[in-house]
Amino acid sequence: RKPLLIAIDGPAAAGKGTLAQSLANRLNLPYLDTGLLYRAIGKLMQIAGLDLDDPQAATVVAEKLTPDDLRRGDLRGREAGELASRVAVHSGVRAALVAFQRDFAHGPRGAVLDGRDIGTVICPDADVKLYVTASAEVRARRRTDELLAKGRMVDYEAILSEVKARDERDSGRAEAPLRPADDAIVIDTSALGPAEVLATALAVIENRP
Ligand code: C5P
After folding, report:
1. Which terminus of the chain is more exposed, N or C, with fewer CB under 10 A?
2. ipTM for the complex shown
3. What is the reported pTM?
């Protein structure tokens, strides 16, 4: 059987990353968190004092991005996510990242990729497309609890408005807006724990045509 390619999309904090990681472990597939690409570009621009809303400047940074840039320690936080969604609106930035993502997706061992446009733009040919979502309130609650558990001072209402702002930017942009592919299976994680989400996804994968 040919190697499996799994595309996972969905809004921020819906549980995509957790699911992608578990599927990759369980099925022994290489995993690419494509959000890291946009996060790294945002962070590099901020450090260089560049204007994140300048499409040309952002595209130059995207074209020079190397895998080493993804190993920075400060990419997973809220701030980098915010910077990422600002640079992700530029078509030049997105175009610069296509080849890297497709090469990863079509490696000899198959792959799991997660992001916003994997099923729609990067891998329309994926064997399985999952769209992982949850209400904004549930996502904000999870993110708040995660941060509280790390001992950080956070306010649920502030996180909720951040989540909603990011949804709006990601779904409202002209280029590769966030949306489920026509042939994606939607998994609403609002009432599911990580183990149930994984079981649901594994069932989808096993029962695919
Ligand atoms: O998934 P993550 O929260 O790391 O993504 C950060 C931001 O990067 C998203 O809000 C989105 O704007 C952008 N992104 C994207 N396309 C992807 C992955 C991430 O536009 N495939």
Report:
1. C
2. 0.99
3. 0.95
